[in-house]
Design goal:
The structure is a single chain. The chain has helices at about 1-5, 15-25, 30-45, 50-55, 60-65, 75-85, 90-100, 100-105, 115-130, 135-145, 150-160, 160-170, 180-190, 190-200, 205-215, 215-230, 235-240, 245-255, 260-270, 275-280, 285-290, 300-310, 315-325, 330-335, 340-355, 355-365, 370, 375, 380-395, 400-405, 410-415, 420-435, 440-445, 450-460, 465-475, 480-485, 515-520; strands at about 500, 530. By secondary structure, it is an all-alpha fold. Among the domains are: about 20-130, Leucine-rich Repeat Variant (Alpha Horseshoe); about 130-280, Alpha Horseshoe (Leucine-rich Repeat Variant), CATH 1.25.10.10; about 495-535, no CATH class. Helix 2 (about 15-25) runs antiparallel to helix 3 and helix 10 packs parallel to helix 13. The protein is elongated, with a radius of gyration of 34 Å. It holds the Pfam family Arm. Keywords: Repeat. It comes from Cercocebus atys.
Length: about 550
């Protein structure tokens, strides 16, 4: 009988007149039949309230409750999905309570079950619990975990889950659930479609209201997290700016809760894409962020440094504001942080500030050349890149280069020229080019092998870059004997001094022997090495 029915329907297309037949299939002993029947009824119930009522009248609820504990996973999954949809119907909810199925639904939240089962079991619990806050809290906590998964977020949105979440936020009597509801919404804002839906339904203003008016730290924190994620969208940033979100975020920086400070700093980072917002934080925001750099919490320091990095990038006024707020010393202290993100962000702020000569001199007076050595030795490529860029921005005069050289900073810088990371290699080349500006530092760079490494890089089509070529040429200008042997010419600015020697042309990649080694060679039939020496004592 059941096999005959199975062959007569399409599990994706059933109407009211065939629904009764499919309900009968819920009593089949065959797992395949049960799975297909549940799948068909799920599609049927999705079409609206009328179909949910039809399934109730046809007696589908009771046999479906038994399938929640079926040994076959597919059957169990499909049955759970149906209840996630049916449980929004008030009459179905009433019957489910009479049938005492809550334990069976809760059992579907076991860790070994599939994510989709967790999703629909949570949805069912949420639907069943307006009258049961503890269950609703459990459902929201579960959603807070599973909505870290993209597919779960899509499922929640497609099943009107966001509407339920917004309703919870709008209900003062459910304020015990607001923390968890905001956490779920923050996760959902990872997806553009969800973001648009929340904006269109006024949800973003609701988030701002919670951030502004709540006195509960976790609510403030989760609201700020949601704002941070939403602010990566241009339309949302515009809306937030119109609602003066900046004032709210600055206020949250003063929270006693570290999580709230972190979330507010991250939201400021995102809002920096709006130029008006970026300007607002010049007087309000930057001083508070500088204070957060002194926090004992490493995550707080990292988030504050990120916000400052974004605020000062391509904005000289904000870079000045950071300096005026006595930010140089705490920024240099962050360079010794245990978190790579904090180090990279602090180095970025210092680089942005060093674009202005008065600030660069101030930074140099705070022992930047010694502090930057540890980041140069980092194993993290982002930290390496930002540290090398900071050297390029600050080693612009002989005193700074001398300090870097005497502190042992040239050795790790030269090693970065070997990096397989393009950005690290590019920024290290830039820094070497700057450091080669005086003869002593250039000579030390050559002694450490910078010239050899850059020559090797220049011969590689994939590793060569504009800065590696400039750095190589800059070092060559401080080693005129090698330059002349390699290129066969010197420019008008290349002044020959005593000790210059002409070995003759050498091929690229060939090492030029130093003068001391050449002096030890026996005479041969090769052309003589020409030496410039104006002193009387040879």
């Amino acid at each position: 009988f059941f096999n005959k029915i199975k062959d007569q329907f399409d599990p994706f297309m059933i109407e009211s007149k065939t629904a009764a037949t499919v309900v009968l299939m819920l009593r089949s002993p065959e797992e395949e039949v049960l799975a297909k029947a549940c799948e068909a009824l799920y599609k049927f119930a999705l079409k609206g309230e009328e179909n949910k009522a039809t399934l109730l009248e046809l007696g589908a609820v009771e046999p479906l409750t038994k399938l929640l504990t079926h040994e076959d996973k597919i059957v169990r999954r499909n049955a759970t999905m149906i209840f996630g949809i049916l449980s929004s119907n008030n009459d179905v909810k009433k019957l489910l309570r009479e049938l005492d199925v809550m334990n069976s639904v809760i059992a579907q939240l076991a860790p070994e079950e599939e994510v989709v089962i967790h999703e629909f079991a949570s949805l069912c619990l949420a639907n069943m619990s307006s009258e049961y806050p503890v269950i609703q809290l459990l459902a929201l906590k579960t959603l807070g975990v599973i909505t870290n998964d993209k597919q779960s977020r899509t499922t929640l949105r497609d099943n009107q889950g966001l509407d339920h979440l917004i309703k919870i936020l709008e209900t003062k009597e459910l304020n015990d659930l607001h923390v968890e509801a905001l956490a779920v919404i923050a996760n959902c804002l990872e997806d553009m479609d969800t973001m648009v839906q929340i904006r269109q339904t006024g949800g973003l203003k609701k988030l701002l209201s919670f951030a502004e008016n709540s006195t509960i730290p976790d609510i403030q924190k989760n609201a700020a997290k949601a704002i941070a994620k939403a602010a990566y969208d241009p339309e949302n940033r515009k809306l937030f700016h119109e609602q003066e979100v900046e004032k709210c975020l600055v206020a949250l920086l003063g929270s006693e809760n570290d999580g709230t400070k972190i979330a507010a700093s991250q939201a400021i980072s995102a809002m920096c894409e709006n130029s008006d917002s970026k300007d607002f934080f010049n007087n309000q925001g930057i001083p508070q962020l500088i204070q957060l750099l002194k926090s004992d919490n490493e995550e707080v320091r990292e988030a504050a440094a990120l916000a400052l990095a974004n605020l000062t990038t391509c904005n000289s006024a904000n870079a000045n504001a950071a300096a005026e707020a006595d930010g140089i010393d705490p920024l240099i202290n962050v360079l010794s942080s245990k978190r790579d993100g904090a180090i990279a962000n602090a180095a970025t702020v210092l680089t942005n500030m060093a674009m202005q000569e008065p600030l660069r001199l101030n930074i140099q007076n705070h022992n930047i050349m010694h502090a930057i050595i540890s980041p140069l030795r980092s194993a993290n490529t982002v930290v390496q890149s930002k540290a090398a860029l900071a050297v390029a921005a600050t080693a612009c005069d002989v005193e700074a280069r001398t300090e870097l050289r005497n502190s042992g900073g040239l050795e790790p810088l030269v090693e970065l020229l070997r990096s397989k990371n393009d950005e690290v290699r590019r920024h290290a080349s830039w820094a070497v080019m700057v450091c080669a500006g005086d003869e002593l530092t250039a000579s030390e760079l050559c002694r450490l092998g910078a010239l050899d490494i850059l020559e090797e890089v220049s011969l590689s089509g994939s590793r060569r870059n504009k800065f590696s070529e400039l750095a190589y040429n800059k070092l060559l200008n401080n080693n005129l004997s090698l330059k002349y042997s390699q290129t066969g010419y010197l420019s008008s600015s290349n002044i020959i001094n005593d000790g210059f020697y002409d070995y003759g042309r050498i091929n690229p990649g060939t090492k030029l022997l130093p003068l001391k080694e050449l002096c030890l060679q026996e005479p041969s039939d090769r052309r003589a090495v020409l030496l410039i020496n104006s002193k009387s004592d040879v």
